[in-house]
Amino acid sequence: MVIKMNADRYTKIRDKIIPKPKLFKKLLISFFIGGLIGVIGELLLMIYSSNESLSYNESSNLMMITLIFVASFLTAIGVFDKLVTLFGAGLIIPITGFAHSTTSSAMEYRKEGLVNGIGTNIFKLSGTVILYGVVSAYIFGIIRYIIFGG
Amino acid sequence: MTINFDNVYLNNTSVVAGPFLYDGPLKGNFDDEYKDFYDGEKTYEDCEIKELIKSINILIKKEKNKKIDLMISSDLNNQLIVSNFASKNFGIPYLGVYNACASICEELIIAGSLLYNKDIHNIICTTSGHNMTSERTYRNPTEYGASKPEYSTFTVSSGTSCLVSDIKSSIKIESGTIGKVFDLNIKDSNDMGSAMTPSAVLTLFEHLKDLNRKPNYYDLIISGDLGKYGEKMFKELYKEEYGIELNNYIDSAVHIYNNEDKRVLAGGSGPSCLPSYVYSKIIPDMKSKKLKKVLLLATGALLNTTSVNQKKTIPCVCHAVSMEVI
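ok -> structure tokens follow
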């Protein structure tokens, strides 16, 4: 039997019924939450660098470690995934998202062992960030070298 | 492809309901419940195995005078691992089948056909679902919690069992239609309702045509897990393609959860969505003669993570089973 249903006609029905994602609202929330994390980072940086025994670079590392620790801790106690559902990309794009995706993968696969479970899967989601982070660092490094001479 | 059955009856059923389901609108209709996704076990998989074993045990207890010849089981885990482990406890010959969320009707049709064999009299059909194991199988780690669009569905956590037998009971499984795999180029794995709707429309049309019936022959036509928007699209598409307005149609996904809870998005899904609703709501209604003729349309999205990542469409299937009160 020939099936007479047609994809174009169906697309019209689907477009009418499926709600459009509320893009503007989501972008706005992400913008402010992402910005808020930036502000927290900046505050931490100010606090750490006000300590005279820490250099600016050391303070910046400490600030990142603090954010990573807090995000991973919140993932571990099962709070961060609920926040992500609410705030979306605002939490995923900063370093908190990297920490969250790594910790959540580690938690998910811990029952499959240290090597085949955690070892193999810990960068399942965040591997993308590492790979393209390194690649783009090279590309922008080269561009910077050509334009500004290092 | 429609098969008529004349000696196939649905006997007792059992449902063990998990989180979100047990305190939803069907509260109190279940045989047993568990309240968190671990239920005292170490892994989500162990919890799902436990829920399925519990459900089979309850059914066997209800049917203790009958000798079970066979069990047919389905779940969403890779290689049906939950069904395999659960069946290990029973020493009953076992068939594992997979048609994703269309499995329940697939099982009933297989069971109905096998009952024509004179050596087989009692077959248990089971399905199991667990929100967290299916999140892991099809999507991201469970703790990741990426936000999902409001039209995606929320897998039902429950273990369901029923006994299909050639010994007469009040509910007869009268016919079944084996559907064709069909899709209309939907690729969004968050939108399985849209993907499955055309296959459900096709199977309903073919079932009615094969048996020369009108939709209003049935008191209720109930589809598996198309969700809030899928339910609307189903009606709309059926009207558009075949010119008939359906006024006796519902989707079980929409009626299984407390829909005010935003976490369940467009409603339930999974292999145990339709059977959970049917066993705890429709069967009691049929026994009290509120409903006499009911058509089940179990819809399944036959995707896996590889096919999604390779940007393929989502192939879907829908099988129909018609039940009547006698």
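Residues 46 and 137 of chain A are 26 Å apart (CA to CA).
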